[in-house]
Specification:
The complex is a heterotrimer, with two copies of chain A and one copy of chain B.
Chain A: H1 4-18, E1 22-23, H2 24-31, H3 35-49, E2 56-60, E3 64-69, H4 74-86, H5 91-103, E4 106-107, H6 108-115, H7 120-128, E5 132-136, E6 144-148, H8 150-156, H9 167-178, H10 180-183, H11 185-191
Antiparallel strand pairs in A: 1-3, 2-3, 4-6, 5-6
Chain B: H1 3-8, H2 14-24, H3 31-51, H4 56-74, H5 82-112, H6 141-185, E1 189-190, H7 191-195, H8 200-215, E2 219-223, E3 230-234
Antiparallel strand pairs in B: 1-3, 2-3
Classes of the chains: A alpha+beta, B mainly alpha.
């Protein structure tokens, strides 16, 4: 099953997900094949991509390769950006933004918990528009904290978050809901011996 | 999700438990087999009472229906209203639907464990982390305040709902307690005479109470032959006790 | 040059750039073609992607479509990209998720009816994890409908809900539940013999 065709498919999937340029050496190591095999499969992939019905393209220099859109479609990104950015915020994005503004810095998990829905897309959207900023949590690796951006506050005409209308009230409310696990210690201990618990 | 809520996620629901009991005895889903597992189900509900009071309400609803079914099987002379007949059928057909979906969840479980997964690119991935400032034209401070206020209203509305469930549970428990106390005072009683003029709910709770007291050996019961009236005594040595099968 | 092949190519490029699920309507608007043309080109794209040398895949529901990697490479890419490990599903979550997957869109009341238990915690949990999506029922205010999310389809490695094992059977079961007056003959005769029925 590990034919050269299959290797081309694997490389396409890998480049699709990775996004950034990737060295042949690293591809070979990751997929546990020789660099020659990778070079060959890339050649085959490049040929397939020239097909009229394909929208993707391989960009490469001597050692690295990246999957992008065909140069003909370069204007598409701009078109989409303009369309997306012209639109108003969706209710989900606005809700997420208000939580970050009134209670940031906050992790995505905390925002998800308060909203009761997953917020990844909203947060990415708000980040791209420069409305929120994120930085790695110094206490935990791999976790980001979200804050309202300085540009946003300036745009709204407030100097700092504390100047948001009714800041204290809403800030307190969100804070109260923030660390749910600590509140339920007593209840949890009661549950500890529940039957049917696996 | 609090740890408490997470714990609750580990419980099979009342239908799941009921199906488990029926399948353990390799029975079909019929009124007769439901009556047969009623005792086991009630024992399970009782064990939940002390450990997970907030999920017991759902179990009690099913327990009440089971007791109704069991009463009918033990006392065929018990007249059931049309509504009650329908309730019995409803439990049977719901259990059948539940069993079907159990098969569906086996499929999902398998796919979930398969490491078979598609991955996608983040929204506008090619932009990387280089963002600009593109505020929505009409965004105002009041939009943010309105959004957080709406959220606050929703969050507050969620709190009383949890409390309501607990209150309902307490009510049912209290009712049972009352009936149990009446039993302790009275001497020999006939189930038929006690249940004669009662509403459906009262009969159910009564039966539930009898089973509980029987199990705790507070009372003894006696039934001459199958389907005849049940006599209830306080504390006397066992004659022909009905086991809550 | 604006042949249907070229449209497939453009759509592939657009989905590649956008990343998230995109509605057919929005694709049509962005590329200035009819929705029918988009649907046709997507069909062609889906067929091309089944090729052995292709690493990509289309996931879709009734109105949206997303470009992803083929499910075959899940384990491989998960390790490379250091994706969050998939958490196990609790019995309650699995039960709820299965009902939504096979029978969504559904209200919480319908899910509760089948499970015989209040499902709000489970639905909230699944919603936070992004495995189910909720949206207000257009016919009734204040009522939410729950649907399987694209993330769920991707996790399960299926292109669409219809590809779930025995989908038709379970789907019809739900339809029958919603319209009980059209009971099958077999069921009716079985019930006629049930004890307690007069």
């Amino acid at each position: 099953m590990d034919s050269s065709k299959n290797l081309s498919a694997k490389i396409e999937a890998l480049l699709f997900i990775y996004g950034e340029p990737l060295s042949l050496q690293k591809i070979a190591k990751t997929l546990e094949v020789s660099e020659e095999a990778v070079a060959e499969a890339l050649q085959a992939l490049e040929t397939t991509l020239t097909g009229e019905d394909r929208g993707l393209f391989l960009v490469h220099d001597q050692e690295k390769v990246q999957l992008t859109t065909k140069p003909d479609f370069g204007a598409l990104l701009e078109t989409i950006m303009k369309e997306e950015l012209r639109e108003n915020l969706t209710p989900a994005a606005l809700e997420t933004l208000s939580i970050v503004a009134y209670a940031g810095p906050m992790t995505r998990a905390e925002i998800d918990y308060i909203r009761g829905v997953n917020s990844s897309f909203s947060l990415r959207n708000l980040s791209i528009r420069g409305l929120v900023e994120r930085y790695p949590d110094p206490k935990r690796g791999n976790v980001y904290l979200y804050n309202p951006s300085f540009d946003l506050l300036k745009f709204l005409g407030v100097a700092k978050v504390e100047d948001l209308p009714e800041f204290e009230r809403f800030h307190q409310l969100i804070e109260k809901l923030r660390h749910p696990e600590e509140k339920s210690v007593e209840e949890t201990s009661k549950e500890a011996n529940a039957p049917g618990t696996q | 999700m609090t740890n408490y809520e997470v714990k609750l996620q580990q419980f099979a629901g009342p239908l799941g438990k009921l199906l488990e009991l029926i399948e353990a005895k390799q029975l079909e889903i019929t009124a007769i087999s439901l009556a047969e597992v009623t005792g086991d189900f009630l024992r399970y509900v009782k064990s939940l009472q002390t450990t997970a009071p907030s999920i017991i309400a759902d179990f009690l609803v099913v327990a009440a229906k089971l007791v109704l079914i069991k009463s009918k099987v033990l006392l065929p002379m018990l007249e059931l209203s049309k509504e009650e007949e329908e309730e019995i059928l409803d439990l049977e057909s719901r259990l059948k639907i539940y069993r079907e979906f159990k098969a569906a969840s086996e499929h999902i479980k398998q796919l979930w464990g398969k490491n078979w997964r598609s991955l996608s690119r983040p929204f506008l991935y090619s932009l990387g982390e280089h963002f600009f400032f593109y505020p929505p034209e009409h965004l105002k401070l009041s939009d943010l305040t309105r959004a957080i206020n709406d959220l606050a209203v929703t969050l507050k509305a969620l709190l009383p709902e949890e409390q309501k469930v607990r209150i309902a549970v307490v009510t049912i428990e209290q009712k049972m307690e009352e009936l149990l106390n009446r039993f302790k005072e009275a001497g020999r009683q006939s189930f038929q005479s006690m249940s004669g003029q009662k509403t459906r709910t009262e009969v159910i709770v009564l039966f539930l109470a009898i089973l509980h007291l029987l199990k705790d050996r507070v009372i003894q019961v006696e039934q001459g032959s199958q389907f005849s009236d049940i006599m209830i005594d306080k504390g006397a040595p066992p004659a022909t006790a009905i086991s809550n099968q």
